[in-house]
Automatic annotation (TrEMBL):
UniProt keywords, alphabetically: Membrane, Transmembrane, Transmembrane helix
Name of the molecule in the record: DUF817 domain-containing protein
TM helices/strands, residue ranges: 12-32, 44-66, 78-98, 104-121, 133-156, 176-193
Lineage: Bacteria, Bacillati, Bacillota, Bacilli, Bacillales
Pfam families registered for this protein in UniProt: DUF817 (PF05675)
Length: 202
């Protein structure tokens, strides 16, 4: 785009994540999982529009890291495994309110599916690699740290933070971990699909 920060394709991915995140936020606020107590002019069903940008920022980070760090994936699972897994993880954020919460089963399935997968990246001309599952955990943890900062300053609050602020439950790391996995799977799948599409020639 004009700023040079994101390409047109990356902007499409970021917009998609904004919509996915906003839909999740509206549902979660309706179910009482958390709330946005402050008044605002840009709220939809009690959810400020900026909440979608929080999810979009994760997509932006993944897209930027992919391009700037020259990310490559080794032993990536088949498309027909990745897509249903990502869909199941996302749907569980909704269905666990009415059915059993299968996040730990999904987490175990992620470990099995990506056990042999690695991510390689380049920093200052040197290539490094780490287990893909470890990268999920690290990103999820730092998002949890950022969430603590956001709730401390009142961006949103959980029911147990209404009277006084306290640390976000460590168990939320698992939620962010799964959300990061969904984000990564979507970005990685779209990247691979694009690579298989013949580019127009002049």
């Amino acid at each position: 785009m004009r700023s040079g920060l994101e390409t047109r394709d990356e902007l499409k991915v970021i917009t998609l994540f904004h919509l996915i995140g906003l839909a999740l936020e509206i549902f979660k606020v309706h179910m009482g999982s958390w709330s946005y107590p402050e008044d605002g002019y840009s709220k939809i069903f009690g959810v400020p529009l900026y909440s979608g940008f929080m999810y979009a920022s994760v997509a932006s980070y993944l897209c930027q890291a992919w391009r700037r760090l020259r990310v490559e994936l080794l032993k990536w699972p088949p498309f027909l495994v990745v897509v249903p897994l990502a869909a199941a993880i996302y749907l569980n954020f909704f269905t666990h309110h009415f059915w059993i919460d299968v996040r730990w089963w999904l987490s175990a399935l992620v470990i099995i599916v990506f056990w042999q997968s690695w991510v390689t990246y380049e920093v200052n001309g040197t290539r490094y690699r780490m287990p893909l599952a470890l990268s999920f955990v690290l990103i999820g943890f730092f998002i949890w740290v950022a969430e603590n900062i956001a709730t401390f300053f009142g961006a949103w609050e959980y029911p147990y933070q209404t009277e006084a602020w306290s640390l976000v439950h460590l168990g939320k790391v698992s939620s962010w971990l799964l959300l990061v996995i969904v984000s990564f799977l979507i970005v990685a799948t779209l990247k691979q699909v694009k690579e298989k599409i013949p580019q127009d020639r002049d």
